[in-house]
Design brief:
YefM-like fold; 3 strands; about 90 residues; 3-stranded mixed beta sheet; about 30% helix; alpha+beta
Length: about 90
Amino acid sequence: MTRSVPIRELNQDTAGVIARVEAGETITITRNGRPIATLVPQGAEADIPTYPFRTDPMGELDDLPVFQGPDLSDDEIEDTLSGMGGSVD
Protein backbone atom coordinates (compact mmCIF):
# COMPACT_ATOMS: atom_id res chain seq x y z
CA MET A 1 0.00 0.00 0.00
CA THR A 2 1.28 3.44 -0.89
CA ARG A 3 1.13 6.22 1.67
CA SER A 4 1.30 9.94 0.88
CA VAL A 5 3.71 12.32 2.58
CA PRO A 6 3.69 16.07 1.94
CA ILE A 7 7.03 17.45 0.80
CA ARG A 8 7.12 19.61 3.94
CA GLU A 9 7.08 16.47 6.11
CA LEU A 10 9.87 14.99 3.98
CA ASN A 11 11.87 18.20 4.53
CA GLN A 12 11.30 18.18 8.28
CA ASP A 13 11.75 14.44 8.87
CA THR A 14 13.80 13.03 6.01
CA ALA A 15 15.42 10.35 8.18
CA GLY A 16 12.03 9.20 9.46
CA VAL A 17 10.51 8.98 5.98
CA ILE A 18 13.55 7.08 4.68
CA ALA A 19 13.35 4.71 7.66
CA ARG A 20 9.74 3.94 6.69
CA VAL A 21 10.85 3.16 3.13
CA GLU A 22 13.68 0.96 4.44
CA ALA A 23 11.07 -0.91 6.50
CA GLY A 24 9.22 -1.76 3.29
CA GLU A 25 6.72 1.07 2.92
CA THR A 26 6.15 2.75 -0.45
CA ILE A 27 5.69 6.51 -0.07
CA THR A 28 4.37 9.05 -2.55
CA ILE A 29 5.69 12.56 -1.99
CA THR A 30 3.09 15.27 -2.66
CA ARG A 31 3.20 19.02 -3.20
CA ASN A 32 -0.10 20.82 -2.69
CA GLY A 33 -1.82 17.43 -2.75
CA ARG A 34 -0.38 16.43 -6.13
CA PRO A 35 1.99 13.44 -6.38
CA ILE A 36 5.49 14.46 -7.49
CA ALA A 37 7.64 11.42 -6.63
CA THR A 38 7.41 7.89 -5.29
CA LEU A 39 9.94 6.34 -2.93
CA VAL A 40 10.06 2.55 -3.02
CA PRO A 41 12.24 0.13 -1.09
CA GLN A 42 15.29 -1.10 -2.99
CA GLY A 43 14.36 -4.13 -5.08
CA ALA A 44 10.60 -3.58 -4.77
CA GLU A 45 8.27 -2.96 -7.67
CA ALA A 46 6.46 0.37 -7.64
CA ASP A 47 2.73 0.38 -8.44
CA ILE A 48 3.25 3.16 -10.96
CA PRO A 49 3.14 2.92 -14.74
CA THR A 50 6.47 2.63 -16.48
CA TYR A 51 7.20 4.05 -19.88
CA PRO A 52 9.79 2.77 -22.34
CA PHE A 53 13.00 4.78 -22.45
CA ARG A 54 13.11 6.92 -25.52
CA THR A 55 16.41 8.41 -26.59
CA ASP A 56 15.13 10.78 -29.25
CA PRO A 57 11.93 12.80 -28.88
CA MET A 58 11.89 13.33 -32.65
CA GLY A 59 11.47 9.63 -33.37
CA GLU A 60 13.51 6.72 -34.62
CA LEU A 61 16.37 7.24 -37.06
CA ASP A 62 14.75 4.74 -39.44
CA ASP A 63 11.92 7.24 -39.94
CA LEU A 64 14.20 9.91 -41.45
CA PRO A 65 13.76 10.78 -45.12
CA VAL A 66 16.48 9.66 -47.52
CA PHE A 67 19.02 12.44 -48.24
CA GLN A 68 18.81 13.34 -51.92
CA GLY A 69 21.71 15.78 -52.18
CA PRO A 70 25.17 15.22 -53.67
CA ASP A 71 27.68 12.87 -52.03
CA LEU A 72 30.29 15.04 -50.30
CA SER A 73 33.72 14.08 -49.04
CA ASP A 74 34.81 14.94 -45.51
CA ASP A 75 37.03 17.73 -46.93
CA GLU A 76 34.09 19.25 -48.83
CA ILE A 77 31.93 19.15 -45.72
CA GLU A 78 34.70 20.75 -43.64
CA ASP A 79 35.19 23.49 -46.26
CA THR A 80 31.46 24.21 -46.21
CA LEU A 81 31.29 24.32 -42.42
CA SER A 82 34.41 26.46 -42.03
CA GLY A 83 32.82 28.99 -44.38
CA MET A 84 29.87 29.11 -41.98
CA GLY A 85 32.06 29.58 -38.89
CA GLY A 86 32.03 25.94 -37.82
CA SER A 87 34.44 23.05 -38.04
CA VAL A 88 34.45 19.29 -38.06
CA ASP A 89 36.46 17.63 -35.28
